[in-house]
Amino acid sequence: MRDDEKYTNSEEQLLHLQNLLDDPDTTALKAYFSELDILDIARTLESFPAKTRDFLWEYVPDDFIGEVLAEVDEDIRADYIEDLSASDVEEIVKGLDAQEVAEVLDVADEAIKTSVYASLEQEIRAQVENLHAYEDDVVGRYMDPETVNVKQGVSLEAVQRYIRIHHLLDDESQQIMITDKDKRLLGTLTLIDLIKQPQEAVVDDYMDDFFTLNDQMKVSDAAALLRSKELHFVPVCDSDGLLVGQLNAADVLEITQDDADMTLKHMSGVSNEEEVFTPVLRSAKSRGIWLGINLLTAFLAAFVIGQFEAALDQIVALAILMPVVASMGGIAGSQTLTVVIRGLALGQLAGNNIKWLYNKEMWVGMSNGLVWALVVGLISHLWFGDAMITLVITLAIFINMSLANLSGVLIPMVLKKLQIDPALSGAVILTTVTDVVGFLSFLGLATLIIL
């Protein structure tokens, strides 16, 4: 049994590795790394800060370095490549496929890219340059440019012979693609049909209909489609219908994971590149931008409060209860915002169902608003014994929670129409709306009813 198989979860494995690092004898550490596969090594390196990670790199088997570099987070890859010469990188990418070479060179400077391009085989070089021609957020950047495709009219026997001679199939290949003489995709052939059907038959007889993705489609849109259709293999075509690549199971998983990670980070105002062990200055810089934006919105809320200074001076209870109004609206709106952003990511919101969603959230907001307004009103009455204050906060809670739910739908929909990622700025805008509406309704009603 391998050492790491004795551990039931990744946390236990991490603790075991930390114990190995404390041991002056590095024999066990070297043995540990020799038993790991590429993905395990990449995840292990990502679980340590830079100083320890640099030490662990020495134990990564030389044959795995290129593939591990292609798997680790981009900032880790950039830190490693930064100290390498062009000849070092050329040696690392030898034997890698086009996708892996493209990942490694993504973080290299132009001089190193030019040098490495010149060292690649012509076919691999063309594929890498093609991948680098795509924007980072489109399907073409994620696809595997190597495809197994045959021309129409060929017999199944000839296809099998062709595949065996050229060793075309690998662990990820799931279907063979059938194209015309111009490489326009006509259909797909499963490996099962290739083997079990009469070998004298031609591929056209067992060609299946196919679903494709456009190479220029946004990755977030592709992720929603792939999840909804539960696809693990998809041909990729350009706008003319020409086959340019394929998405394998690993590519599909990478797209969905990256999309989920990006959404989660954007909802918290964190940049795409930041990870757990990103250096202090880099993390502070990436987060500081959104903290600055949030500060501006906070001052807007403070300005609204300042307009009711006289009311606050006369009634201390208003200052005590004011955060309750903003907090209840903020939570209600955040719940709706989360559901809506998830629906957008899954491609579930379009056309008539958006109107249904507005109606639903309006009623949810009003129902919860009424219930919790009465609860807060009762607590306020028991606390302060003032009927007017009770009335004011009850109405304010109801108004803010009702409008917060509607804002949780409206804000991401508007941002999407403006082609702005709702996850990136939706939470900041929503917080501003619920704070301003909450303070305005609470203090405005207090001014009208009490003063």
UniProtKB/TrEMBL annotation:
Gene3D superfamilies tied to this protein: CBS-domain, MgtE N-terminal domain-like, SLC41 divalent cation transporters, integral membrane domain
A GO CC term assigned to this protein in UniProt: plasma membrane
GO molecular function terms attached to this record: magnesium ion transmembrane transporter activity; metal ion binding
InterPro entries associated with the record: CBS_dom (IPR000644), CBS_dom_sf (IPR046342), Mg_transptr_MgtE_intracell_dom (IPR006668), MgtE_N_sf (IPR038076), MgtE_transporter (IPR006669), SLC41_membr_dom (IPR006667), SLC41_membr_dom_sf (IPR036739)
Keywords associated with the record: CBS domain, Cell membrane, Magnesium, Membrane, Metal-binding, Transmembrane, Transmembrane helix, Transport
Domain annotation CBS: ranges: 206-262
Localization of this protein: Cell membrane; Membrane
Primary location recorded for the protein, binned into one broad class: membrane
Transmembrane parts of this sequence: 289-308, 314-341, 362-383, 389-415, 427-450
Protein known as: Magnesium transporter MgtE
